[in-house]
Each structure stands twice: as C-alpha cells, then as structure tokens.
Amino acid sequence: MSTDGSANPDVVLVGGGIMSATLAALLGIVAPDWTVEVFEAGSEVAGESSGPWNNAGTGHSALCELNYTPARPDGTVDPAKAVGINEQFQVSRQFWSHLVRAGLTDSPKTFITSVPHISFVTGDDGHRYMRNRYEALAPQPLFAGLEFSDDPAELDSWVPLMMQQRSPRETVAATRSLAGTDVNFGALTRLLTESAVDRGVQLHLQHRVQRVRRDSAGRWATTVKDLTTGRTRTVRSRFLFVGAGGGALPLLQSAGIPEIRGFGGFPVSGQFLRTRNPELVAQHQAKVYGQAKVGAPPMSVPHLDLRLIDGEQALLFGPYAGFSPKFLKAGSMWDLPRSVRAGNLGSMLGAGWANIPLTRYLIGQVLQSEKARFRALEEFVPTAESDDWELITAGQRVQVIKQDEAGRGVLQFGTELIVGGDGSIAGLLGASPGASTATSAMLTLLERCFPDRIDGWRPVLQEAIPSYGRKLSEEPELLAEVRADTTKTLELQG
C-alpha cells in the first residue's frame, strides 16, 4: 500500500522488517502525534530476514543456544551473555503482551507459541560441558525450571526422533526448558505494521531508498524510487532510522556520518533442510541446538527446529553456510565490492586476514556434497531418509566488521546500533540474536537518539514494559509478576 505521503515527515523508517515495525510501535506510544513514513523495497513487509522461513524463529532467549554460554579455560561456563540475552527477550515479551492487550491481535498464537528448548551434546567432552552449563544456568532466576539429563531413556521421551537407532554406547546429555517459544517474526512484523498504518503511519511498498544525505536545513533528505512507476522523489525528515538489514551499511555510508567509518560487512547466506512429513514432525516437538564443530564459527551451530508457520508444522535442520556477495536475498552481486571504502578498507583486510579459518569453513560449506550435507543431519537424526527432506535457502546475513581499540579489523557475530553524532540518524547492523531482542534494541535507540525526551517518555514505557530500566535477573518478585502476566497474555505454557 502507498500514498504520496508527506514531503517533510517527522520520522522516516527504511526497511519493512521487525526493527522498523518495532520502532514504529514504540513511537506510537511515546510520540503518537509524530508523522512517520516507512519505505520498503519489496512487495510486502518482512520479506527478508524477518520472513519466517529465513530464520529459525527460536525467540532467542539463550535457553538452548550453546554459543551464548562459552566455557572458560578451566571448563566452567560463563552465564553472563545468556542472562543478558534472556533479559532482552523478556523485554520483547512484555511489549508484545502490552500490544496484545491493546488489540494487536485476537490470538497471539498467530505469532508466538510454546515449544520446549533443548540443548543436546554427545561424547565425554560434550557431557562435561553440558553439566557445567546446567550448573551455571540453573541457579539463575531467568532459567528457573531448567532440567538436565544424561539418561537415554528419559531423552527418548524428550527427543524421540533423535534417539531412534542411536548407539547405546554413545554418551549423550541434554538440558530442557519448557519456557521456550517459537516466534513467527513475519506474522509479528505484519501485525505491528498493520497496527501502525491504522494509526496513520504511511507505508510505501516497492519503494527503494537510493541515497541519504543531510540537507542545508539539517534534515535528512532520503531519495526514494517508486519501483512500479520509476518516479523518484526526496523526503526530508527530522529523524531517520535505517533498519534495512544487510542494506543498512551502504545507506549509512551514503549518509556520510563519521560513526560509520571503519565498519564493513561480510555477507553469509544460509540453507536449511526442511521436512513437512507429519510423522517426523510429530516425533520432534522441540527446538534442539547442538555444538558447533571445532574451528567452525558460532553461526554454524547445528539445530533441529520445530516451526509453526501459518498453521503448518515443519522441521528445519541447519544451517549450512554459503557465500554470496549480496547483502540481501533480493540484493545485487555488487553489494560487497561497493561497500568497500577508504574508511573501512583496513578493517575489511584485517578481518579477512584474522578469519582465514572462517574463509576455509565457508569454502568447504559451498563445496560440500549432498551426501556430506545429509551426514550432518544423520548425526542429529540417525534414521533420516533423504526423500523426506528438501534444501531451502534462508535469509542473507551480513556480519559486522569493525575496528577494535587497536585499530584492527574484527568480525563481530551480533548486532551493532550506529547512531549519528547528534542523534538524528541511526541504523542497525548485524544478525543474531537480532529479531528476538528488537524491543531492547529500539529502546536503546530511543535513549541514545532522544536523550532530552526519554525522561518524559519513561512513565508510558514502564507502563508498557514493567521491567524497563530494571533487571529481572536481580528482582525475583518483579520477574514472577512479569512471567505470569506475559505467559497468560501471550497464551503460553505456564
């Protein structure tokens, strides 16, 4: 949908994914009188990384993702990152609950459902790590109810599909949390966007942002091309957010803000094996994460996920990494070379030199045979048959390359909020945990970009998100209240 909109809106949001949709929802609470326009190059919102088949939909809460609980040199496990990510996901749950009560949807099951989250390892080293991880997380209030088992009979009841015909001599161990969820971020993005449009936000589909620059009046001039008519126009806004996924880097570079200097991007494509076989799906009603192979990057952590999308259940296994110079699935083969500038050339070269093992890994993944790819699935599902599974291409991710304190280029696996010096422009770079922590990321944006207004906005934000400005991990009573409320409102398992 689209109208001509305003030539001078208060806010322009670039990209029709979960980040822009979340920011639009927050602005609807704190600044309902502001005019907002959204520009999306695709024919629908949530067509890239927010699309349900383009991500695992885990609702990243660190309940099962082992890369968020690294082992220390002495073998003990550091829970800090897992606690922080879980805390951020609780913020998202609170905000979604507030929106559901306000009429976002008749049934939250259209975008979120309860699914157990399980971590699964094999071998003596894996068993030792899993036990240490459990001992580090179990005392944490946010991980209450976490279970540990190394009993094959019990694990057969947790993950029957994975235990069939597994050698009885194999050492296995797992943890399980019944507090896990599956989130359809595509459906959630559509609901948030529809609600924003109903409030008066202007949505322009098939409108590609070509350039961003600061005009003489200090507003951000965003040049946009209507892909259906070919007409180009310029919109001038007081505030600009670039939430265009992989497309954010070149737009922030075109804006010329000094804060983007030194940043680069390394695109990685992903593939998954998918089955819709109802007999297999019925035997795996969980999301299960394993350990990455020695020397493999964190993004390669194998997982077998139950997905619930638009009323259909399916299983996804992966990811299988690939390489494409595109920054978006619908991007250009020139995206990567065009992103190399004088200001980030050193970072790009330094990160490339420091990550030769990653390069080897990606080359190996690209050249991987169909049989080798299927063997990875068989490690999870010993009885897997190739006829039941199909290979699908998932979303394109652009990992952040930035300079460290010593000026060296480093590859960062995470997200990075870039804010221009005066707070009138911001953009988000990076990937996982991404969508699951969108509310926290956009709250941080409000704090950094509108420091003179945030104190006035705090009461309404705390009404929508009771833990805003506080830590649930340090306030058990508040955690209990929030958990009970969101579980009831979102119709999740208690």
Summarize the structure.
With 494 residues, the chain is α+β, with helices and mostly antiparallel strands. The protein has helices at 18-30, 80-101, 123-137, 152-158, 160-163, 185-199, 248-255, 278-282, 335-339, 345-354, 356-366, 370-380, 438-449, 454-464, 476-489; strands at residues 11-14, 36-40, 112-114, 117-122, 147-149, 172-177, 181-183, 202-205, 207-214, 220-226, 232-237, 239-242, 264-275, 287-289, 303-309, 312-322, 390-403, 409-412, 415-419, 425-430.
Entry keywords:
FAD/NAD(P)-binding domain, nine-stranded mixed β-sheet, 24% strand, 494 residues, alpha+beta
CATH class category: Alpha Beta
Identify the CATH homologous superfamily. FAD/NAD(P)-binding domain
Which fold name fills CATH's third level, the topology? FAD/NAD(P)-binding domain
Number of strands: 20
Going across the biggest sheet, name each strand in turn.
5-6-4-14-15-16-13-17-18
**Outline type:** globular
Gross CATH architecture: 3-Layer(bba) Sandwich
Question: What fraction of residues sit in β-strands?
Answer: 15-25%
Total count of helical runs of at least 4 residues: 15
Q: Tell me the Rg in angstroms.
A: 22 Å
Percentage of residues in helical conformation:
25-40%
Main sheet overview: 9 strands, mixed
Structural class: alpha+beta
Calculate the mean pLDDT score and round it.
90
Euclidean distance between termini CA atoms: 39 Å
- How many domains, as an integer? 1
Q: Spans with pLDDT under 50 lasting ≥5 residues? A: none
